[in-house]
Design brief:
The complex is a heterodimer of chains A (290) and B (364). Chain A has 290 residues and is an all-alpha fold. Chain A has a single domain, classed as MetI-like (MetI-like fold, Orthogonal Bundle), CATH 1.10.3720.10. Chain A contains 12 helices and no strands. In chain A, helix 3 crosses helix 7 and helix 7 crosses helix 9. Chain A starts with 7 loop residues before the first helix and ends with a helix. Chain B is of the alpha+beta class and 364 residues long. Chain B has 2 domains: 225 residues, P-loop containing nucleotide triphosphate hydrolases (Rossmann fold), CATH 3.40.50.300; 124 residues, OB fold (Dihydrolipoamide Acetyltransferase, E2P) (Beta Barrel), CATH 2.40.50. Chain B has 8 helices and 21 strands. In chain B, strands 6-7-8-3-9-10 form a 6-stranded mixed beta sheet, with helices on both faces. In chain B, a hairpin with a 2-residue loop joins strand 1 and strand 2. Chain B is globular and about 75 Å long. The two termini of chain B are 34 Å apart. Classes of the chains: A mainly alpha (290), B alpha+beta (364).
Chain lengths: 290, 364
Amino acid sequence: MATSTGKSGEGRSEAASGLLLVSPTLIYAVLLLAAPLVTVLVYSLSLRDGGFGLDNYVTAWSDRINQLLIMRSLTVSFSVTLVTVLLAYPVAYFVSFYVKPERKSLWLFLITIPFWTSYLIRVFLWKVILGYNGVINSGLLSLGLIDEPLQAINYNVPALVMTLAHAYAPFAILPIFVALEKIDRSFLEAGRDLGESQLMTFIRVTLPLSMPGVIAAVLIVFIPTVGDYVTPDLIGGGKLPMIANRIEGTLLKQNNRELGSAIAVTAMLVVAVVSIVFLLLNRRFLKGAK
Amino acid sequence: MTTNDAMIEFRDVHKYYGDYHALRGITATIRPGEFFSLLGPSGCGKTTLLRTIAGFEGISSGAVLIDGRDMADVPANKRPTNMVFQSYAIFPHLSVEENVGFGLRRDSRSKEDKAKAVIEALEMVGLKGYGKRAAHALSGGQRQRVALARALILKPKVLLLDEPLSALDKKMREQMQVELIRLQRQVGITFILVTHDQEEALVMSDRIAVMFEGEIAQLADPETLYRRPNSRKVADFIGTMNFLPASIISESAASVEIEAAGFGRIQLEPGQVMGGATAEGAAVGFRPETLTILYEGSAASDRESMATIEEVVYFGDMTYYDVRIDGSETNVRISMRNVFGRPVLDRGERARVGWSPGALVLFR
């Protein structure tokens, strides 16, 4: 804290005013983030008949259903992430490279329109489209193309992925767009000048330079979807629970805080490990990008 | 015209951006092995013209030929040119050697041969041993060398340089000027340089095209450009030139007789008579170093005038005098090399000024 010029008093007051500035956020973070986390951690380690131990984790990890649900959560999240990023990249690319500079903010504004309605309403929208009595089924029925509602389009993983991908698309577009915007256009001209076609210039120059944005998008989509429980509940119709639904059930319905907390901490650890892998990848790309 | 005389040929090239007429009928040839500069103020179209050679900019009408071949349908990646960008455009995600070897992917040579070529290219630009460095760890001058190596390794017929020295500090810039000249002699290919720095163009080029508002105002070698600018505009843009009002007394095929304020009657050869006068009317122009202040015992001059010293600017090796020649109403600048033992004159002193009719140019 002491500054090299010896004006440590000034430095201290500067640090103090800095602390004062962040204190509302800090208090908020401590009370509503750190404290609950610690509580959950303590619960997960405490045993029902008193004392502490790892028994809850053993129970949680050895449960076939938990294993299945965490695998399903990861599968759904990975699929959602893949679909979202693959769909978001061309949109971001288009806005960055083909939209006139003065129109770009309008386009970004349009991209955020889905956020104007609540998430629940957007999920219900997909239920209305894909559901048993939904738009697609009743449409096909009234056209006489099918005799009874299709089961294949609802209550399954693809429906879940579609809904989540739609919900998270804007989150994925923005970081990729920012990464593409930062690419000096002379790099692309240099790629062409050095004999590469447009496609090869994209592969050798644009894509690697936009990777930080892609990885940011991956993290932004992946992390919340692993823990999502509203969407599986509504779209899956209760038949496709993910790990978050399991945690909710164990904590609230079974009133088993200890085991529920252990599952929750486990899910967090899995997300943390995957995220760290992506972050390391990101660092590799960022290292080169100055 | 055979292809041997022209590496680049512009045939009445026009370029419009919407209503804006960026290139207004450029016709010029650039010879093989020449160090050619496009010189002009910003917005004159010099960079646009360079980019039409590289293929980054289409043209509205006319033709651009490289080595006798019309480039109309040839995309940038298929042209026998390579470019050093103003920002250098060194790929930040690649190392120095990956940058230099970027264009070799489609080369049929073996991996070892390519690696050898990269090492040679780095050696040529004075970056031996820098191959493994990350691109972003380089200084401005080093980036420029990488950009040069990356372009030259592909052995282009023409190297295009878009204001490559403008981002460097003065000392580095002067060093790179010399190195670019050396490189150009070494590889022997055509270099085309875009610059707004007239000194840089004079130092480096075999020939220079001075551009204003989308047109080439004059295309000549540096000496002609400096001594015989074909308009007041070119004269003003390159170096410093003094102007004094003049009127034409008589003219014949062999000579033109004029009367210039302060100089009296002068006979000029037809080669000294240019167009390109401003609205003020005809004027004689001359460079500051073509006039000398005469001291006791100075070598005699062709012609002499008397003048009053109005301002003295001392530069150490040089002194600039702003003087008013008797009979004229505007100050002119004289630059004198300072010689030991010869006093620097003061403001208000009277001086004899020597000059020579051969150093004058008439703009009419």
